[in-house]
Amino acid sequence: MRSVRAISLTVAFVMATLTGAEGIATARPGDRTLPGVEDAPEQQWGSASGRSSRATAGDTSTDAAGGRPGHTPASKELPRESGTSFVARTQEGRLPTAHATPATVSPTEPRGFAPKTSREVTNERGQTSKTYQNADGTLTTRFFDEPVNFRDATGTWMPIDTKLKELPKGGHLGRGTNASEGGWQITAGDSETMFAGYADGAPLVSLNTGADTSVGFSVQDIAHVPGEAADSTITYRSILPDTDLRFIAGGTSVKEVITLNSPDATPEWIFPLHTRGLTARIETTGAVTFRDAAGGVRATMPAGWMEDSNLAPNSNQGEISNGVRYELVNATGGQVLKVSLDTEWLHDPKRVFPVKVDPSVVTVSSFAASSGTFVESPYNVNFSGDTNIKVGTYDKGGHKAAGFLRFSGVESTLKNAWIINTRLALYNTWSYSCTARPVTVHEVTSNWSESTTSTYPGPATGPALASKSFAHAWRADGSSSWPCGPAAWESISLGSAGRQLVDDWTHGRKKNYGLAVKASTTDSYAWKNFGSDDYPNGKPSLDVTWTKYGATYKLGTFVTPMTATSEGVFKVTVTNRGQETWPKGGDYSLRYLLYDAAGNEITDTAKIRWSAMPADVPPGKTVTVDARIAPLTPGDYTLLWTMNHNNIAKFSSVGVPPLGMKVSAVSIPPQLIRSAPPSGAVTNTLTPTLWASGTDRDRYPSSLQYQFEVCETEGKDTRKNCRMGPRVSSQQWAVTSGWLSWSKTYAWYAYAYDGSTTSVRPGPSLLTTQVPQPAVTSQFGSADTSDAFDERSGNYGTAATDAAVPTVGPELSVTRTYNSQDPRQKSAFGAGWATRWDMRAVAESNGSVVITLANGAQVRFGKNTDGSYAAPSGSVGKLKAETGGGWTLRDGSGSLYTFNGAGLLTKIADSHGRSQQLTYTNNQLTQAKDVVSGRLLAFTWADGHVRTAETNAVSGTGTGLKWTYTYEGDRLVKVCPPSSTTACTEYAYEDGSLYRSTVLDAGPSAYWRLNEAVGESAASEAVSGTGLNEALYRDVTRGVNGVLAGTGNKAGSFDGTDSYVALPDDALGSSPFASVEMWFQTTKPGVLLSQANERLEDVDLTVSQATPLLYVGTDGKLRGQFSYPGSSSTPMTSTGIVTDGGWHHIALSGQEQHKPCTSMARQSVPRLAQSTTWTNASITSVLAGPAVPGRASTNPISSVTSVVRSTRSPSTTTPWTPVRSASITRRERPPPASPRSLCRPGEWTPRWSTTPTLSG
């Protein structure tokens, strides 16, 4: 429990809020702004493209054009709502539009792989790939078309090494095969390829094709000759007469070449097969496949072919034949493969020996789709086992070749990776000459298999991705030197097209069918041979440089342009083309690189903004980001949008191209955002104060000034005879005297000026001048002879006719009308009673004239600068000033009333000119005489009221008829007719109060009487346009006696610990006008009214920021001040103490206007609230805000509060309104008030009522 001092406070009623506050604060809670440039709402930017309709504020105005302004008020009609309004922007001058145009970007491509600096990432190895970390942060993965790695016993990928190592004698050749005479095995690889020590070994060669399968073979009936191993090759010489046998070990394959050195060499061989878990089968293509028990192919021996040594010039190629036939024979111990050659072709006289015969065994694995081969016309031969890939022609098109490579696994290994560049590495083993000719690389667009690809032109291909000219490895026949060097590597960049192709593979947009290598088929100089996957240390590879980051961008439009002082917002659509999800609000963001008009990069981080992802963005998904742009001084800039991995890398730095745009930082002209009064308002002065609020988002080049323009209207023309006021630094300006006339509609316009440009002209705000009418008495006169009660005004009325003299002209009678709300005490027939003989004309200081009518109602005629008078709204009466003084009033019936210079009614004439003359003695009416008939009514007076009314002598009696009137004080209590003292009418009165009716007639925006007995809501009795102006009780004791005598109105008691009343949101924060009034009694110091940045109920009565508006100091004196930036730290202070337990009234009034303090005690401030977030006001005794003069930092108050009231303007208050009955009752006046003006120029100044027992 907080430590508090329990003291006594009673609040009777509160009238506290701001002009127009409710309409703005509750209707637009999302974008409410307080008046003032500092916190004006920011302009929203966009496009009206495609919108064909438009309407100005004038087009949709509810004000009728033409006719008489105003209308006759209907019974119980509510007053017109007022306040401030948001300014409707017109098309007369468009705000500057910020545009972004695409900018050409030439990003520097990362270097990528560099042999000296790139390092292999061993844990990224794959069966056919190796990955390198590059110095620039990128990665390069090198793909091969056959396996280069294998998993060891621990499951780790290790490099395959096909170099042959010698096995010790007594070892094993193959799984379970004894190698008593030694042999050779590849150094490392899961195929464990082995060769026998001697040619007649059984098996001669063996390789594993799986965990429990293997394939091998021997050669029947051959010599016992040793093998000669060199690197990956082993040769067995003279295994048969004129016959040699050579093997080349691959990672998962064995390349076999039988060399026939003469025509006498045998053309047929028997190969006993040594298989485990496999069965051989000859396919329709002529190839031999080795299948497991499930029918799966584990190994393949392609159809054989042979080539002689009759080399065409510069071709390094002899004649080729596919005359190699396979036959499977079942024999004891297993299957036997018989290989037979075409003897006719071998014995052709053109044949040149030696002849090479090429059958091969290739292991099938999960990466069997990786492959390489070539096709050559006119042959129908499967060259997938050759050590070379041939392209082009060596005889001007007689022979044409094209190579095909498939690097399987790119699409899965680099799934969703962003491809930076691609390079195809080929080992050039032969060229037609040393003259460089181009080689082209193409996309393969149809599926293919190396085991079935044997005819030219091979699978379908697309246009060339890239080309490169070179020539290596040519020498003349019979020469041993290489003029342009021996075989050499060439790396062909596939360019942007190749980069895009591989990126399509990795993102699943295209199937990976591989690449084709081609050369001219008409230019023989283009002929080239390249190493195939069977070429030792000369295998093709595809280098793919990539990054896990990836993004593409699409420019949108500006939401808000950047200025010199405010951020911009631009919509950028980003697609995640990388491998990782960008989490919402995580460590991925969108940023930009900034360049000035000269192309110089701006690296100042204050000029850069990073925008987080608004949602999770998985790979392949797209998001639109409201990308922030830092404030930029006006000028032209280039922005390169790039994603950013926070504190790690910019995407653009690792090869992901940014998207460029050119923009201009705009210098925004000022914008008008709010104005008051709103269009359609009615003003009761000819010098109304106009108010506007603008914003200059770039605050350039100087602070805002305002200018106001006033125009006459005629029909739809709202710009007639316009007059422009001066530029002023204040947001308010009073219309110059003489510019306006009564009962006319004007259009006014506000402009904001920033020292350079002026805001566009807004739509017209219509303002009608209407003569203000007395708040209470203008509503009188609804009763005739029967009783009547008006619910809205609370007025009870009745009428009676006493004396009536027949005439042919104006009525000659005493007809009395009673109005319970009439505050006037000295009428001819007593307080509250009115007759035609009470009609008066009273001139006011501003020239207006108030006419009291026969029924007690008062109407005001406003005086124009030309001397004419404007009638009240809806009235047809005409008032005219008479030469020599006085006025004449003609009403709707045509009757003419004449008033002398003192305002007394002296003559009444009807529309026919028949008149009555009125005679006065000491300003008291003594006779009213009909001029035509001579009949009259004579009056006698006593104590300020009529005592008798008597007619002319009645014929035959010599005396007239006399009515007598009796009074108690100012109250008429009896009326007796002629010749009777008993047949009288008597009147009785009850005590009451006029306070509530008078307050409501003053038009408050909120009026809390605090007289509810139960419930948590404190109802406002003022009319609400939204119904959202209820306050809330919190631990307040109800039913305490209130301040108003003669009523049952109660008050609320606050205990000084937990009691408070929470006023509606923003009750004190959204209008340029404010008045706060309150009745209270207390014996101790503390807070009466405060505002805070938080709701008390939300923070357990402990707010972080609060300020008292009204409070009683420790010295017992009342203090008050509306706080605002720059306001005095010393509040205004009453001269007397208020802790005497008596009722006191306080009225604090002000408006946003810098003017000297006046007798109305008005404070001038640049804004009404200390902070736009301090929107929570309360009648409270529990706030412990900052230390303020005369009050400790924690000083709650116990008190009783009776009424809290808010008014529509700072000057409309009723602290000294007479207290009297709402029905016939005795009347009381309060003691004279002693208002004390504590004026401090330039500040809010309250009006104080310090008389301890003031009851009005």
TrEMBL record:
Gene3D superfamilies: 2.60.120.200, Immunoglobulins (2.60.40.10). Residues 793-861 form the DUF6531 domain. InterPro entries: ConA-like_dom_sf, DUF6531, Ig-like_fold, Laminin_G. Residues 46-66, 1198-1221 have a biased composition (Low complexity). Residues 26-138, 1186-1256 are annotated as: Disordered. Residues 124-138, 1247-1256 have a biased composition (Polar residues). One of its GO terms (biological process) is carbohydrate metabolic process. It holds the Pfam family DUF6531. This is DUF6531 domain-containing protein.
